[in-house]
Amino acid sequence: MRELGDTGAEPFWEGLVTADGVFAVDLQQRVVFWGPTVEGLTGRQTDQVLGKPCYEVVAGRDTRNHRFCRRNCPVIVNARRGRPTPDYDIVCPTVYGTEKWLNISIVILKRPGRANLVVHLCRDVTERRRLEEFARQAAALLRELGQDSAPTRELQGPAGPPPRLSSRETEILRLLACGLTTREMAEALSISPTTVRNNVNRILGKLGVNTRLQAVVYASQLRLI
Fold it and tell me: How many Cα neighbours within 13 Å face the side chain of 178?
């Protein structure tokens, strides 16, 4: 594999050992190196991206869903001025029809007699971001409950003793608490998504709640998980 425009000198990635995905752009924001780990994360192959503008290839958005990857983005402006850029999270589309959250660290590679490169070290933090969002929603709901002098009927559950859940329902409830989607729970338990949805509906009915988040909060209050 050769760097775009390489003249035969030792490529910058020779001897590089990292578990992170790596890609590099020049100061004109052209992709000059696209590592195999990044290929796996995005589904985009090296020969499809070399020489293209990085903002078109990565197309990352920030936590507010604003376009972060763009012409003259903060990373490239800092690099041109020789300034560091703190690590950041962006959400990027993949060729698989999904999106991944990537945490990216920036290294400015200075090469005597050659143009500097902006090296991006990236790692998949999709699971972390999903759990953080789930925890944020749960915390907001608990704050709402704490401020409400008359708790809503949805979270009081049915009258009488705590509901009895099957072992499968308990498994699914614990996965719900981890923020997993229906498809991910199905894969984790080797069952169909339809079976997962049926179990979730039974859980909601037994707990007397309307949403998955309410189920997790109420089940936690009852020490069912």
Answer: 14
Two structure tokens written together for 115? 């143009």
Whole-angstrom Cα distance, residue 90 to residue 77?
Answer: 18
Q: What is the pTM of this model?
A: 0.65
145 CB-contact burial (10 Å; exposed 0-12 / middle 13-18 / buried 19+): middle
| Number of CB atoms found within 10 A of residue 95's CB | 10
* Residues 193, 173: Cα–Cα separation, whole Å: 15
The DSSP output letter for 8 is S
Query: Three-state secondary structure along 118-157?
Result: EEEEEEECHHHHHHHHHHHHHHHHHHHHHHCCCCCHHHCC
- Written as one string, the DSSP assignment of 100-117 is EEEEEEEEEE--TTS--E
Segment 73-115, tens digit of pLDDT? 999 999 999 899 999 999 999 998 899 999 999 999 988 888 8
